[in-house]
């Protein structure tokens, strides 16, 4: 096992250190680091706004934030031997948060965007264990750090399918962010014109904003492109279920991750979406004990984007859980359906990331007698 470092200056924009990161999803982005299965990586991540907000900034600074720079991602990290159909395993081992964070409300963004037309800013002081703010007095939040955005590169075929379906959302009058060369990193080749914006969750994971994917959790990502090409960013000190205003306690940070590979597992089990698991107790009583979770997005079984449709995302997460219980746990499909009804916890993990909401189906493993 080798430990690698992929470090950034977390107070400087990604464009000043672009060889270590990117802000679009595309399979042609060159890796910033190459590792082997079993290796660990210590990496820095910028905040979601790419260091555009500084300590002491007021509401006037929000008007100058360029959303085309969201989200700066550290990577890609190439994993030797990873091939489409494999599962990339990423263990989140440690996080050191930055000393400051923020929560913003931006007009036109967020789940209740029609009801909140004015900007708002909460500036947080982070001491490693808690967050407090004079902008939200009387509130103390405990540290529950996780990466809001992480994932692997899409294949060229998946990229094409996503571009078509998200354009269909726009054509139907829905909200989506099409490719935009403004501030795209890298700014060369096919990436500016066709690189996917990082806002929504997709098959490659992306901006999932799932609070339960914190330290002690193992991420299971189906691989779409050779070498997997994993990237991460958008660190959250903590977040409520749903991230309804569009931002969590956003922060920069330093993370330690361990990587492994399960050859052919996605193809064998039919895994199509991010899954994740925990073997140790989580930080909140509701998540005590081990669990296994599947995720869903607003794309139906026919591959059609149903923009901001929680029902479609919930069906998607349940479909993944049913497949897991049948293929990997040995239940019949009807047994699995019954188990979902009596034990699986359905959670709306993120609502504002158009066009896809993120839903999680979480199975507490202490209900199972079998391993």
Automatic annotation (TrEMBL):
Signal sequence coordinates: none
InterPro entries for the chain: FmdA_AmdA (IPR004304)
Region (Disordered): 266-297
Keywords per UniProt: Hydrolase
Transmembrane segments: none
UniProt EC number: 3.5.1.49
Any GO molecular function: formamidase activity
Entry-linked PANTHER family: FORMAMIDASE C869.04-RELATED
The protein, known as: Formamidase
UniProt organism field: Pseudonocardia parietis
Upper classification of the organism: Bacteria, Bacillati, Actinomycetota, Actinomycetes, Pseudonocardiales
